[in-house]
Design goal:
- The protein has about 300 residues and is mainly alpha-helical.
- The chain has 13 helices and 2 strands.
- It has 2 domains: about 180 residues; about 100 residues, no CATH class.
- The longest helix is centred in the first third of the chain and has 25 residues.
């Protein structure tokens, strides 16, 4: 909600104080609700009916409160509640500009701590879907800035730390649905990478997190398109023309050098080659198909050398 210029600075200050008060009230309401999913006063069937109605909630105050109440459902083991209902509602409202700035701030305050290392997530749903919901928050901020520089920096820090630290590589399960922490984290990094308010040092942190996860430790083979999701923020960072050919060449060289090698193939070396090839080839195809000549000149020399090093 943007303060009206009619009435001068005094009215703007009053409205701003009211927004802060609303934000605190909404956040306290969400925290006091506990881990209630479905939210009190509704159930899964009622949410499904609301989805059929395109998530239309005429009462704005009720929509704001429900948005925060649905955050608990992002950790639900029920894939319909978690993905098809809770996340779908949040995405629809955020993309439709139906979430007030105070509510968005409360969402950020609730979700960012869930990305931190050590946050409770035994079932493996809470963190990936917190990242996916925060990608929608970051998208709102990218299109119409609502976060302070400090809040945005905190989000970049949490997002890069989360992506670099993902060790739960479960993707899709026929019973449980999606977890997909790497891909969801990459989606959050994409929205941050696209934001012109994210500076070069923060973009470097994003690239470092992606490099760490393009080569996951151990013997895990990516099989759910993780390489493509990870390369997408790299492509759009390249489009921003922040880094030159030497910086990109150094980044690709370091990535290639980090791949473990052995005289005889092992599961770990084969997985590393597979995962890095998936990432690099997806980026190469995107650059060839959609990159400008300037982008190609900056990025293809280093990318081409990294691909040759896979042999």
């Amino acid at each position: 909600m943007r303060a009206s210029s009619f009435g001068g600075k005094g009215l703007s200050i009053v409205i701003g104080m009211r927004q802060l008060g609303l934000g605190a009230l909404l956040l306290c309401s969400a925290l006091s609700a506990g881990a209630a999913c479905p939210p009190a006063g509704t159930d899964k069937a009622a949410l499904a009916v609301l989805k059929k109605a395109q998530w239309s909630v005429a009462d704005d105050a009720r929509r704001q409160a429900l948005a925060l109440e649905l955050l608990d459902c992002l950790a639900s083991p029920d894939p319909e509640l978690r993905d098809e209902l809770a996340f779908d509602a949040l995405s629809r409202w955020l993309r439709g500009r139906l979430i007030a700035p105070a509510t968005l701030q409360a969402m950020r305050t609730t979700l960012v701590p869930q990305l931190r290392t050590g946050a409770a997530d035994a079932a493996g749903f809470r963190q990936p879907f917190a990242a996916l919901a925060l990608a929608e928050v970051a998208r709102v901020d990218r299109l119409q800035p609502v976060l302070s520089a400090a809040a945005r920096a905190e989000l970049v820090d949490a997002a890069t730390g989360y992506v670099a630290g993902v060790r739960d590589y479960r993707g899709f399960d026929a019973r449980d649905g999606w977890r997909h922490g790497v891909a969801h984290g990459a989606d959050l990094l994409l929205q941050l990478a696209l934001n012109p308010a994210v500076d070069s040092s923060q973009l470097k942190a994003i690239l470092a997190a992606i490099a760490a996860q393009a080569l996951p430790p151990g013997e895990h083979f990516y099989v759910y398109g993780e390489g493509e999701r990870l390369m997408t923020p790299v492509f759009y960072i390249g489009r921003r023309n922040v880094f030159g050919v030497e910086e990109w060449s150094a980044w690709f060289a370091a990535l290639a050098a980090a791949r473990p090698k052995a005289e005889a193939p092992t599961q770990a070396t084969l997985a590393a080659k597979h995962n890095l090839a998936q990432f690099l080839l997806a980026l190469y195809a995107s650059l060839r198909e959609a990159g400008s000549p300037e982008m190609q000149a900056r990025m293809l020399p280093g990318l081409g050398a990294a691909l040759k090093a896979l042999d």
